[in-house]
Sequence to fold (345 residues):
Amino acid sequence: MKALVYKGVKNLVLEEVETPICPAGGILLRVKACGFCGSDLRTYYSGHTNVNSPWIIGHEVAGEVVEVGKYVDGYKKGNRLVVAPPVYCGICYFCKKKLYYLCENIKELAQHWPGGFADFMAVPPEALRLGNVNIIPEGLSFEEASISEPPSSCINAQEIAQIDKKNTVAIMGAGPIGCFHLQIARARGASKIIIMDILKKRLELAERFSPDVIINNKKENYIKKVLQATDNLGPDVVIVACPSPEAQVDSLKMARKGARVVFFGGLPHGKSKVLLDTNLIHYKALQVLGATTFSPEHNKMALNFIFGGKIEAKKYITHIFPLENFEQAIKVIEKGEALKVVLKP
Ligand SMILES: [Zn+2]
Ligand SMILES: [Zn+2]
Fold:
């Protein structure tokens, strides 16, 4: 089969590899669509601690079942499936409390098992038992379903931040993650949503999701603008959805007294020691929250949000390329011209 193989930093090669066999207790999937994630780009540029080369990456996978392994119930040939990467152990302290996203032994498809930038992908038995394998609802395309992984993490974060109807929400970063946060906050009933970025192209793309206020952080005094848009009180919730230490610092300044501030996503290696004014946390009684990855229920919710149109998947998919044109995918993401890019084997 054809596969896009990561062979080291800045070295992705499309080549012929052995087609995987269907594992006992697992499934063999004919990959129909696989999202190209920001983290795939990071792996391409600087490697990944859990990815050894050569390795098939690609973790936002949708495909059709071509073979069902021994002992597997509930799936059959021809099923259309979407597979998100986290696989939980099910027995650790956190799994027992159903806080799967905190699993001590979490493993990921495309890291511990080969991923979906290929004609076929084997879904291991562990992923069927304790993972995120869902049947794609009738009427939803493989491409639309494939992008259900990133909003799953956003849903988890917004549950942690308890965003509700009375809340004004400011989102720092208008990339795909920022836009998913926008639509999910809308779905949860947030009363006013402010989005900001330093890239004009990103803000233009974010406009399609009708934010209440849109701010160009390069051109405007954004803290002042956020305060103006919130009766000088600041937002109830600030979500930092960009890998920027400065954004984390400023999030505390713009937050309302008693607000929740979510640090969503990590900072690049070596940049995560940030000088925060902790007196702001103390005197404004802020809640600074972390959020990472998701549990199976969040992935199901993301798929339902896409199916129900609360997350308008088609508006995110700005580019679809055949697998062999992966270099174009890298280019459009680098230039900030894309929201979600999907590759099709
Ligand atoms: Zn991803
Ligand atoms: Zn666990």
User: Anything to note?
Assistant: The chain has a mean pLDDT of 96. The first strand starts at residue 2 and ends at 6.
